[in-house]
Amino acid sequence: MVEELYTNSTDEIKVYSLDTDSQVMMVDRSVSSKVGQSFVFDDPQNRFGRGNVSPVRWGQFDNFPQWVNATLGNDPDAMPTLDKCANFILGGGVYFYKEQFENDKIIKVPTIDKNWYNFIDKFDEPLDDLLDDSTNDFCWYGNYFAEFVLTRNYKVFDFQIVDPHDIRPMPLKRGDGRRIREYHISGNKGTVPAFDPKNPRKCNHFIIHGRKRVAGNKYFGVPIWYGSSAELKLKKLVLEAQIAGLENGWSIKYQLEIHEDFYDDCGTPKEEEAKRKKLVKELNDLMRGVDRTNNVLVTRLFRDHLGKVYSGVNVKAINNTLIDKAASNLIALKTAGASARYGLDAVLAGTENGGGMNSGADTRAKMNYHTAINTPRPRKAILKIFKAIGLIEGFDTSVKSGFRDVYLTTTDNDPKGIQNAI
Question: What is the pLDDT of residues 141-159, one digit of tens each?
Answer without folding.
Answer: 999 999 999 999 999 999 9
